[in-house]
Amino acid sequence: MTIEKKEDGVETTLIPVGRLDTSTAPQLETQINEVSEDTKRLILDFQGLEYLSSAGLRVLLAAHKVFMKRDGGEMIIRHVNETIQEVFEVTGFMDILTIE
Amino acid sequence: MKELTVEATVESIPVITEFVDEQLAQYDCPMKAQAQIDIAIDELFSNIVHYAYHPGTGPATVRVEVLQEPLAVVITFIDQGVPYDPLAKEDPDVTLSAQDRQIGGLGIYIVKKNMNEITYEYKDGKNILKIRKEI
Fold it and tell me: Which residue has the higher pLDDT, B13 or A37?
């Protein structure tokens, strides 16, 4: 998996490309942890993501909690494919995360 | 039928995934079904990595068979670690809020939802977990 990062003021966008699973989830976790303290809005653009497993859900849930705690903070997930959408649906993550 | 035996480590997960995907490629497996199978491999093999031989490691075998009418792929995961039936766990509550959410159990739950069949048996000192997915 490769992860592209774009920073624009209080907004940071991460674009992971490939598969978000047990092997690669630590990479995304590290990138999220390195996002600056000033970031209010974290955007995860999944246009290049093939699928994610529960190892990915773990990272997303932890990041969601961190950003919800920041003043005015939010985490938004964009461009999920059908396979990822279904994982979010069956696990109830559609109701927890902000998915556009 | 094809099978591959590897060390039960995280590093083996992409090796196993590629091995299975190669078999699927011969059957024009739809992308979505392949992604769901790959997710199942990640969930089930990572369970073996984390529980079977903890804190050490040991061998794990993955067997791929293709059945006709209906066309389906059967993947069997075999390890010689401690008896562990992932299906014995209760399904997680998927309606809880973010604060109360636990990740434990979600992986096997995704596999149950995405596969047509999943069975477990402990036989001759081996954990044998089998999934079937129609493609």
Answer: B13
Distance, in Å, from the CA atom of B80 to the CA atom of B125, rounded to the nearest integer, reads: 6
Q: Which residues of B95-120 are buried (b: 16+ CB within 10 A; e: fewer)?
A: eeeeeebebebbbbbbbbebbeebee
Name the helix (H) or strand (E) containing B61: strand B59-67
Question: What is the pLDDT averaged over residues B8-32?
Answer: 94
Whether residue A33 is predicted with pLDDT greater than 90 in this model: the reply is yes
Q: Nearest CA to CA, how far is A79 from chain B (Å)?
A: 16
Which chain A residues are within 8 Å of B35, Cβ to Cβ?
Answer: 50-51, 83
Homologous superfamily assigned to A15-99: STAS domain (3.30.750.24)
**How many structural domains comprise chain B?**
1
Question: What is the rounded average pLDDT of the residues A16-40?
Answer: 95
Write the pLDDT tens digit of every residue in A40-60.
999 999 999 999 999 999 999
Please name the residue of chain B whose CA is at the shortest distance from the CA of residue A82.
B32
Q: Which residues form the domain of B88?
A: 2-134
What is the interface pTM, i.e. ipTM, of the complex?
0.92
Pick from B10, B98, B114: CB nearest A64? B98
Q: Where are the domains of chain A?
A: 15-99
